[in-house]
Amino acid sequence: MTKRIGILTSGGDCSGLNAAIRAITVHAIEHYGWEVFGILKGTSGLIRRPMEYVSLTLKNCDSSMLRSAGTILESTTKENPFFFPGDDGSKADRSDDAIIGYQDLNLDAIIAIGGDGSMRINSRLAKKGGMNLVCIPKTIDNDLAQTDYSIGYHTAITVATEAMDRLQPTAASHQRVMILEVMGRDAGHIALASGIAGGTDVILVPEIPYKIESICEHIKNINKAGRNFALITVSEAIKTENGEQVVRGKSINERPRYGGVSQYLSSEIESRLNADTRFTVLGHVQRGGQPTAQDRILATVFGVKAVDMVAEQDFGKMVAWRNNQVEAVPIDSSIDTYNGVDPNGVLIKTAKAMGIYVGEI
Ligand code: F6P
Predict the structure, then answer these.
(1) pTM for the full predicted model
(2) What is the DSSP string of 135-200?
(3) Phi/psi class of residue 324: alpha, beta or left (left: φ > 0; alpha: ψ in -120 to 50)?
């Protein structure tokens, strides 16, 4: 039977979203002969009147989608359907409008590509409105439980690694301590992975406390061994040594906006070691760039699996990459637990074995 399915992207964007949109569209049309609609700006496209959506076809979802960052469906972190902003700045529960939008579009299911925040909202909305929902995990932070990888993470660590590739020669030329601050919110995955790949000397993640004195000792030992520069990778959400969080205010959804802790670290190291120290805050460039092959493959596998789950009426689930297999797991099981860096995990052990300072001592 012909189905009509909707696709939406919500929350912060990342590379690989368009590859997932393409995979869903191509598989739904080629294999099942369904109609596919792209809802614009997350659930906001279902709430606004007239509704905001586009018809997705083999023509407008060609292979160029594999190569592009961002999302052709646009996204938002500001428009929660349960606290939807009005023109006057007030907030109202517009979830019923989203449900009516789903019904008016005569949709059989929605495939939502999002991180933990948007998955929570979309799941609540689906339960309220009897909407058939399948989720695809995306986040550069890679902090979603139940899946080894989420779309966007591989591209983000590649961008961060390439940034360190560019910083290392200038650090060496000028005999400097070079600090790179990367995103990731409360999870240190981006810092840990890109720090190992970039050959840094110190990796600081929010999950493991550190001591500035230990960092300075480590740099002194590097200097004694004959190398006159040092590289440091830090997660944006590490705290200062006395436990203060460095934030640039709050985002609209009341989450802290991190950024800037590397400046604190830089001045501490500079004053204690009298070393020429510089910091770079990498920021949103980690969310863009051509998706890596790994992200394109993951997005394609996820898109195909999500469509098959709609065909099998396997709803309320998220696709997940686990042990080299794609699986369907309950959405709630993924958002109820948090996937941070395991202080006893293989990457921390590897970093330590490589002589990298990763905190404590
Ligand atoms: O969750 C993805 C992420 O890029 C985080 O790593 C970062 O802290 C945050 O989003 C930035 O959010 P915004 O785009 O709202 O500044």
Answers:
(1) 0.97
(2) EEEB-TT--BTT-S--BTHHHHHHHHHHHHHHHHHHHHHHT-EEEEEE--TT--HHHHHHHHHTT-
(3) left
Name the 3-class secondary structure at 24.
helix
> DSSP H helical segments within 274-319, as ranges?
293-311
What distance in angstroms lies between residue 60's CA and the mean position of ligand 1's atoms? 29
pLDDT digits (tens, 9 = 90+) for 78-117: 899 999 999 998 999 999 999 999 999 999 999 999 999 9
CATH class of the structural domain 4-151+291-322: alpha beta
What would you report as the CA-atom Rg of the chain, rounded to the nearest whole angstrom? 22
291 Cβ below 6 A of ligand 1: no
Ligand 1 lined by 144 (C-beta under 6 Å): no
Residues in contact with 9: Cβ distance below 8 Å, sequence separation at least 6, in sequence order: 17, 21, 42, 71, 73, 74, 75, 112, 113, 114, 138
Q: Which of 13, 97, 116, 141 is catalytic?
A: 141
Q: Catalytic residue at 314? A: no
Q: Where are the beta strands (DSSP E) in the chain?
A: 4-9, 35-39, 53-56, 84-85, 91-92, 109-114, 133-137, 177-182, 202-204, 230-235, 247-250, 256-258, 277-281, 317-322, 325-330
- Return the domain boundaries, the chain: 4-151+291-322, 153-288+342-353
Question: Does ligand 1 have an atom closer than 6 angstroms to the CB of 77?
Answer: yes
What local confidence, expressed as pLDDT, does residue 361 receive? 81
Mean pLDDT for the stretch of residues 217-243: 97
Nearest CA to ligand 1 atom 8: 185
Assess whether the C-beta atom of 184 lies below 6 angstroms from ligand 1. Answer: yes
Give the per-residue pLDDT at 105. Answer: 98
Mean pLDDT of the chain: 97
CA 279 to centroid of ligand 1, rounded, Å: 19
Q: Is the CB of 189 under 6 A from ligand 1?
A: no
pLDDT at 152: 98
Q: In the CATH hierarchy, which fold is given to the domain comprising 153-288+342-353?
A: Rossmann fold (3.40.50)
User: Which residue type is seen at 180?
Assistant: L
296 and 285 in contact (C-beta within 8 Å)?
A: no
Give the pLDDT mean for 212-217: 98
Asked if residue 50 has a cis previous peptide bond (ω within 30° of 0), the answer is: yes
